[in-house]
Design brief:
There is one protein chain. 17% of the residues lie in helices and 21% in strands. It has 181 residues and is α+β, with helices and mostly antiparallel strands. The strands form 3 sheets. The protein has a 4-stranded antiparallel β-sheet with strand order 3-4-5-6, with no helix packed on it. It is globular, with a radius of gyration of 18 Å.
């Protein structure tokens, strides 16, 4: 199997948790559009100004949409359980090795399993996202390329994204091993 990844300047963490002042500054400095601020960051604007309360409500709606439900409030801060280990900023391994959401403690996978298989998956054809500037067919003939988002099924926090051929299993890209082979 061959896998490759690249940076696209997309940022770090769940976009629904991006600081609203930073989004407002991005709009003023034209680093993001009003449409992108609304669809990706959940920022409700009046011109270049971000409405904090309406944005909080919109973010709850978008978080709930990830789970196919009504509004879901912002989760608590990430925390490490006693004896646990960090897998990344929003995923922890319990002492027995189970992968869990660090925000709501939702179990995602048994020890050694791919945590992405326990996530809510949102799969969108690349052509339907605002993340494509060049058609994927430029690089891959007749490929059905999708943008996958992996959200915690408990709290709706966006845990990971990947670009893949439709039908391939999610990459098992985050693993900890106690012993090297």
């Amino acid at each position: 199997m061959f896998a490759t990844g690249w940076l696209g300047g997309g940022g770090y963490g769940d976009p629904l948790e991006r600081d609203l002042d930073a989004i407002e500054q991005d709009i003023i400095e034209e680093r993001t559009s009003l449409e992108h601020a609304a669809s990706v960051y959940g920022a409700v604007t009046d011109g270049a100004r971000v409405d904090r309360e309406r944005s909080r409500i919109r973010r709850e709606e978008l978080r709930g949409a990830r789970l196919g439900s009504g509004p879901v409030p912002a989760p608590p801060p990430a925390r490490l359980p006693e004896g646990g280990r960090w897998l990344d900023e929003n995923i922890v391994l319990r002492p027995a090795g189970h992968a869990c959401c660090a925000r709501c403690d939702q179990e995602l996978a048994l020890p050694g399993q791919n945590y992405k298989l326990g996530c809510q998956v949102i799969e969108t054809p690349m052509a339907e996202t605002d993340r494509v500037w060049v058609s994927p067919s430029t690089y891959v003939d007749d490929a059905d390329i999708v943008f996958r988002q992996f959200a915690c099924p408990g709290c709706g926090t966006l845990l990971e994204t990947e670009i893949s051929l439709r039908g391939l299993p999610p990459l098992h890209d985050k693993q900890l091993h106690d012993k090297l082979a």
